[in-house]
Specification:
This protein has about 250 residues and is of the alpha+beta class. Strands 9-15-14-11-12 form a five-stranded mixed beta sheet, with no helix packed on it. A four-stranded antiparallel beta sheet has the order 3-2-5-6. It is built from four helices and 15 strands.
C-alpha cells in the first residue's frame, strides 16, 4: 500500500511541492544534501529526525534525502515538521538501520565543510552540469571518477573539439579518440580493468592521471542512500550531485 512521506507541510506551497515529488515509502530521518542558493541555515549535512522543524527561507530551495532513499526539493518559505508513522511497528529492520547509518555518514561528510562545492551552485540546480549523469566521470574538475560495471564514460561541458588519448597503465597501448565540440559525453571503448585505480588521459596538450574507484561487488546501485554516501566518500562529488538531481526530478 502506498504511504506518503512522513513530512507534514505547514504551508500550502510546501504541500504542493512534496505532492509533486513524492513516490517513495515513508522516511523517519532526512539529511540536507543541497541548499540553493547557498545559505547558513539549514546547513548542508544537517540531519532532521522525528519532531524536528525544518525552516526554509523565502527564495531558497532545500533538498532533503530520506533514509528510504527518497529525494525532495522544497522551495521556501516553509516550515516543515518531521512526524512519526503511527501505523509503523516501531521496530527497525537491518535495511532501515543500514540506511540510517549511511545517512549519518552523509551528514558527517557534508557537514565537515570540505564538500560544500556539491551543494548550491554545483548541486541539483547547476545548469552547467545538466547533462551529467551519475556514472559519467567529469574530466575538468580534478575529481575522482566513480565507475560501475567496468564502463567508463567521460564528461565535460560542451566546448571545443579535442583529441583524446586514454591509457590504463604504462604497458597498455593508448586509445586515441576525438571529442566533438558539441558532445559532452565520450564513451571509452571496452571494459575498464577491474583492478585499475587510475586512468592516464591526454586531452589536447594537457596530460594527467585521473583516480577512479569501482562500485564494490555486491553493492546495489538502487540503494540510493548507500550509493550517495559511497560517492561522496570516494570523492566523486559531481557524480553524487548528479545522482541527487536525478532523484529529485523523478
Amino acid at each position: 500500500m502506498y504511504r506518503q512521506p512522513k513530512i507534514i507541510f505547514l504551508l500550502a506551497a510546501a504541500m504542493a511541492a512534496i505532492g509533486s515529488c513524492s513516490s517513495a515509502p515513508a522516511a523517519s530521518e532526512y539529511v540536507v544534501v543541497a541548499v540553493d542558493p547557498p545559505a547558513d541555515s539549514p546547513q548542508l549535512g544537517k540531519l532532521f529526525r522525528l519532531g524536528d522543524l525544518v525552516h526554509i527561507e523565502g527564495g531558497s530551495t532545500v533538498t532533503l534525502m530520506g533514509d528510504d532513499g527518497s529525494v525532495t526539493a522544497l522551495p521556501g518559505p516553509a516550515d516543515i515538521v518531521v512526524t512519526d508513522d503511527a501505523s509503523g511497528s516501531g521496530s527497525t529492520s537491518n535495511g532501515a538501520a543500514g540506511a540510517s547509518s549511511s545517512l549519518t555518514a552523509i551528514s558527517d561528510l557534508l557537514g565537515n565543510g570540505q564538500l560544500q562545492t556539491i551543494g548550491g551552485s554545483r548541486g541539483v540546480s547547476d545548469t552547467t552540469a545538466a547533462t551529467l549523469e551519475p556514472w559519467m566521470v567529469p574530466v575538468e574538475n580534478g575529481l575522482t571518477g566513480c565507475v560501475y560495471d567496468l564502463k567508463l564514460e567521460l564528461w565535460r561541458p560542451p566546448g571545443h573539439r579535442a583529441d583524446v588519448s586514454v591509457a590504463y597503465n604504462e604497458e597498455s597501448l593508448a586509445t586515441s579518440l576525438v571529442w566533438d565540440k558539441d558532445t559532452p559525453i565520450l564513451a571509452i571503448p571496452g571494459n575498464v580493468p577491474p583492478d585499475l585505480r587510475s586512468v592516464g588521459l591526454v586531452i589536447d596538450d594537457k596530460s594527467f592521471r585521473m583516480p577512479i574507484v569501482h562500485l564494490p561487488t555486491g553493492f546495489s546501485p538502487s540503494d540510493h542512500v548507500g550509493l550517495y554516501a559511497w560517492m561522496i566518500g570516494s570523492g566523486c562529488l559531481l557524480q553524487a550531485s548528479a545522482l541527487i538531481r536525478n532523484l529529485a526530478n523523478r
